[in-house]
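Dear colleagues,

For the upcoming journal club I promised to circulate an example of a predicted protein-ligand complex. I picked one with nicotinamide-adenine-dinucleotide because it came up in last month's discussion. The inputs are reproduced below in full, followed by the predicted structure.
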Amino acid sequence: MKIAIVGTGYVGLVTGTCFAEMGTEVYCVDIDQNKIEKLKKGIIPIFEPGLDEMVERNHKAGRLNFTTDLSSVLNDVDIVFSAVGTPPDEDGSADLKYVLDVARTVGQNLNKYMVIVTKSTVPVGTAKLVKKAIQEELDKRGLSDLKFDVASNPEFLKEGAAITDFMQPDRVVVGIESEEAQRLMEKLYKPFTLNNYRIIYTDISSAEMIKYAANAMLATRISFMNDIANMCEIVGADVNMVRKGIGADARIGSKFLYAGCGYGGSCFPKDVKALIHTAKKLGHDMKILEAVEEVNEYQKNVLFEKLMKYYDGNIKGKTIAVWGLAFKPKTDDMREAPSLVIIDRILQAGGKVRAYDPVAMEEAKRHLGDSIIYAKDIYDATLDADAIMMVTEWNEFRLPTWEVIRKTMNKPVVFDGRNIYNKQEMTDSGFDYFGIGIK
Ligand SMILES: NC(=O)c1ccc[n+]([C@@H]2O[C@H](COP(=O)([O-])OP(=O)(O)OC[C@H]3O[C@@H](n4cnc5c(N)ncnc54)[C@H](O)[C@@H]3O)[C@@H](O)[C@H]2O)c1
């Protein structure tokens, strides 16, 4: 079986590589020439654990190929996946420009039956727009009767654990509207079915909605716990204990209950915004999600506010060590990262930043230029620092040698945005300590 994956970002590259690993012949297509040239040379443009080795192996085996020209491979494949970006427009809606560009290119070059599958996260109704865009191009070419199908196969992988998530999915959702298309999708996903992973077939609108509802639910849990954490501070409760207490209830479960300094990344913020926007356009207010967003914006500022309070509203000339820049561990992705808000507020208030992240330093330079000092490691970041902001909970940050750090700092104080340290232990080590939702 041969497939093409259009868009070779986090999702497209992981999808293409994992299908190739399962024996499918894959063309990964991207308009970014530089990216494709790098991939051909075995240079992986993103950080994703285990991906480089898998790309290399499948590329060498001839199952994973890279090109910038969709038209040259289109009629050689059975299924085309569209995994291009769907960034938020200014009003929060999902920008479908790239998705529709791909649809038009398909329509301009298609010569045989094919299934065009949208893997990008798109609002309900997008499959209809994709179908229309392809049909219009076919009509222009006098090929109105050429049969094709559209489908929706949203992706649920997490950056940092993308390969495991793809290869051992909780579920695969396929939105489909024809038996022929379903047969092809069943064939493609056969290795997964054989391994007993669950494939859920739905109508297309439901598949599109499932992706948004899943991300909205996860974002809701985070904002809910952050709101509870802020309340814990007021009443003198400890959110870590509250988390354990409610997570033990099987109806609630223990995942995604960690309070912190807000969610970021390329998915939750934009998907929550897009769902709110789609609903509004259709005359419905997603009241819960509006609150989820509001809480998250507030939460990204909580660490900074604690810092300001500690220094009586004045951090002019103070050096703040920021530990962790990526929006979460095991990725270099900094899109909508809480670190960006925190750093911006520190700089605006006249403070200086010495920052360190195990993998996102290059990415940070793209976002922050020379506005901050880039440290070699967490110890270097704390040199002469007046505070530590722990923003991303990388494993290597969990057990630092506090005696060394205390001696190099101007003022030993830690603002722990992910609650990874123990207040008593920190106090015993001579630090002032502030977590989120902790007495
Ligand atoms: N990143 C995630 O963790 C994740 C998880 C699940 C779903 N998603 C969704 O998947 C989609 C892709 O996300 P991503 O993070 O992989 O995006 P990305 O920005 O990393 O990659 C998108 C790629 O598409 C390419 N592209 C744009 N237009 C193109 C065209 N006409 N032809 C060929 N290539 C084109 C870009 O050059 C880029 O390399 C989004 O809708 C996102 O919401 C992302």
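Two points we might discuss: The chain has a mean pLDDT of 97. The pocket of nicotinamide-adenine-dinucleotide is lined by residues 6-12, 29-32, 35, 83-86, 98, 101-102, 120-121, 155, 157, 159, 266-267 (CB under 6 Å).

See you all on Thursday,
B. R.
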